[in-house]
TrEMBL record:
<dbReference type="InterPro" id="IPR011835">
    <property type="entry name" value="GS/SS"/>
</dbReference>
<dbReference type="InterPro" id="IPR001296">
    <property type="entry name" value="Glyco_trans_1"/>
</dbReference>
<keyword id="KW-0328">Glycosyltransferase</keyword>
<feature type="binding site">
    <location>
        <position position="15"/>
    </location>
    <ligand>
        <name>ADP-alpha-D-glucose</name>
    </ligand>
</feature>
<dbReference type="Pfam" id="PF08323">
    <property type="entry name" value="Glyco_transf_5"/>
</dbReference>
<dbReference type="GO" id="GO:0004373">
    <property type="term" value="F:alpha-1,4-glucan glucosyltransferase (UDP-glucose donor) activity"/>
</dbReference>
<dbReference type="InterPro" id="IPR013534">
    <property type="entry name" value="Starch_synth_cat_dom"/>
</dbReference>
<protein>
    <recommendedName>
        <fullName>Glycogen synthase</fullName>
        <ecNumber>2.4.1.21</ecNumber>
    </recommendedName>
</protein>
<keyword id="KW-0808">Transferase</keyword>
<comment type="similarity">
    <text>Belongs to the glycosyltransferase 1 family. Bacterial/plant glycogen synthase subfamily.</text>
</comment>
<comment type="function">
    <text>Synthesizes alpha-1,4-glucan chains using ADP-glucose.</text>
</comment>
<comment type="pathway">
    <text>Glycan biosynthesis; glycogen biosynthesis.</text>
</comment>
<feature type="domain" description="Glycosyl transferase family 1">
    <location>
        <begin position="280"/>
        <end position="432"/>
    </location>
</feature>
<dbReference type="GO" id="GO:0005978">
    <property type="term" value="P:glycogen biosynthetic process"/>
</dbReference>
<dbReference type="GO" id="GO:0009011">
    <property type="term" value="F:alpha-1,4-glucan glucosyltransferase (ADP-glucose donor) activity"/>
</dbReference>
<dbReference type="Pfam" id="PF00534">
    <property type="entry name" value="Glycos_transf_1"/>
</dbReference>
<feature type="domain" description="Starch synthase catalytic">
    <location>
        <begin position="3"/>
        <end position="232"/>
    </location>
</feature>
Length: 470
């Protein structure tokens, strides 16, 4: 069975969020169980591309509105990532450094999808499944079924994974002229509330759609940024499959990015040594429990509550160190800067994203805070558990699916309501138990024995593929 994963992110080539981690790991684990899985993404002018050898395996041209676009398909020669990787380069469209935030994103993603279908049709490539990830490639299923250029591809099955239903790729109908020719009688499949909506189109047209956790699938039936009615109508072809983590990369026993490696037996000493190094560098006390936050400064992540949470926490408990790694909303960032000055020596910040530092923070921290408003799956809590760092999470989406409260015999601390008081209460519960080393070691041991690798999830996707191909 040949499966092509189509996405605009793939770690470590181009990463903005969890989408990249999934696309960079799932195909590798599928190949372990006999699936010929490949990845196709846009070409980006980034370090990975410059550091690896590529060969051109396809070229072509097509019209997009009044433009004639030429594309090249570059294949990474050595399959460094554990699977064949293909990059589509289009001068002026797909040849840039950043993944997002360009004013012509709609034109970029239309061109990417058109070039991909043009290439596989003209190259005789005929996968069993095209697995599309997020709205950027949400038009693929529609174009396979109703695009007049791609008749020979109509029997290919499509699966669409919703990584975040809040972002849908809306575009005005004046962009319709940029699409490859299609059966105009089917225009309604592109439309939602008077706009072209690639996410809605994917849900309507794909043979199946998945979400990155069972909890998030159920939440989309209730609230999906206007598409909840559509998700309900198409519920028969919806599946929730929780993400996994790449344990060849996220594993404290073999992690070359952390200062001191450790395993389930040596975790106490290992975490103490990593904490000491991190705290010394960022002016924190390593003698205190270390609570961290890693992520985007966005309301979606509950980052707008961080300042209030930490002010309330320090008002009742001062024996804690806090480290924050992230970037995003400027207002949130400025409030955190003020807090760092106010609580000097107790709270430290690193603005931006640093992959090496992220690994070191997981290895050094005792707890990880995730007060999310929306969390389709969440990977940070899974990384934390692997490193013996206990997650403190809001019961939402994939966090609800993957973290069980210690009060229920679990290995984390869960709060229900989205407010600072409930978050602080959960943190205080964790600090009370942390003070009892024997109990804390038991919780940490339970966390590190959990299996959230991609092995199980990759198998579930393969079962779904087989079901569709029957």
């Amino acid at each position: 069975m040949e499966v092509i994963h189509l996405s605009v992110e793939c770690f470590p080539v181009a990463k903005v969020g969890g989408l990249a981690d999934v696309v960079g790991a799932l195909p590798k684990y599928q190949r372990k169980i006999g699936i010929d899985a490949r990845v196709v993404i846009p070409w980006f002018d980034r370090p990975f591309v410059k550091a690896h050898l590529f060969e051109i395996v396809g070229t072509g041209s097509f019209s997009q509105g009044s433009e004639e676009l030429h594309y090249e398909v570059h294949k990474e020669k050595n399959d460094t990532l554990g699977f064949p990787l293909f990059l589509i380069k289009i001068p002026g469209k797909l040849d840039r450094e950043e993944v997002y935030c360009y004013p012509d994103e709609a034109e970029q993603w239309i061109a990417f999808q058109h070039a991909f279908l043009h290439w596989i049709q003209n190259s005789g490539i005929h996968p069993s499944i095209i697995h599309c990830h997020d709205h950027h490639v949400g038009l693929i299923a529609f174009l396979l079924q109703h695009g007049t250029e791609f008749r020979s591809l109509v029997d290919i099955k499509t699966i669409f994974t919703v990584h975040n239903g809040q972002y849908q790729g809306w575009m005005n109908w004046n962009k319709g002229i940029l699409l490859p020719p299609f059966d105009t009688w089917k225009w309604g499949l592109l439309d939602w509330d008077g706009l072209i909506n690639p996410l809605a189109t994917a849900i309507k047209c794909s043979d199946a759609y998945t979400t990155v956790s069972e909890g998030y699938l159920n939440e989309l039936f209730i609230e999906a940024n206007g598409l909840q009615g559509l998700f309900n109508a198409e519920s028969a072809k919806g599946y929730g499959i929780v993400n996994g983590i790449d344990t060849a990369y996220w594993n404290p026993q073999i992690d070359t990015l952390i200062e001191k490696k450790y395993n389930k037996i040596t975790v106490q000493k290992g975490k103490e040594e990593n904490k000491q190094i991190l705290c010394e560098k960022y002016n924190l006390s390593s003698d205190l429990p270390l609570l961290s936050f890693i992520g985007r400064f966005a309301k979606e992540k509950g980052a707008d509550l961080l300042s209030e949470i930490f002010v309330k926490l320090f008002s009742v408990r001062e024996n804690i160190s806090i480290f924050i790694l992230g970037s995003g909303d400027e207002e949130i960032q400025n409030k955190l800067k003020e807090l760092e000055l106010k609580f000097e020596g107790k709270l430290s910040l690193f603005f931006g994203y640093d992959e090496i530092l992220a690994h070191q923070v997981y290895a050094a921290s005792d707890m990880l805070l995730m007060p999310s408003r929306v969390e389709p799956c969440g990977l940070n809590q899974l990384y934390a558990l692997k490193y013996g760092t206990i997650p403190i999470v809001r019961a939402i989406g994939g966090l609800r699916d993957t973290v069980v409260d210690v009060a229920d015999g679990g290995y984390g601390f869960v709060f229900d309501k989205l407010n600072a008081d409930d978050a602080v209460e959960a943190i205080l519960r964790s600090l009370d138990i942390y003070s009892n080393l024997k109990i804390w070691k038991g919780i940490r041991k339970k966390a590190m024995h959990l299996d959230f690798s991609w092995d199980r999830s990759a198998q579930k996707y393969v079962e779904l593929y087989n079901q569709l191909l029957k």
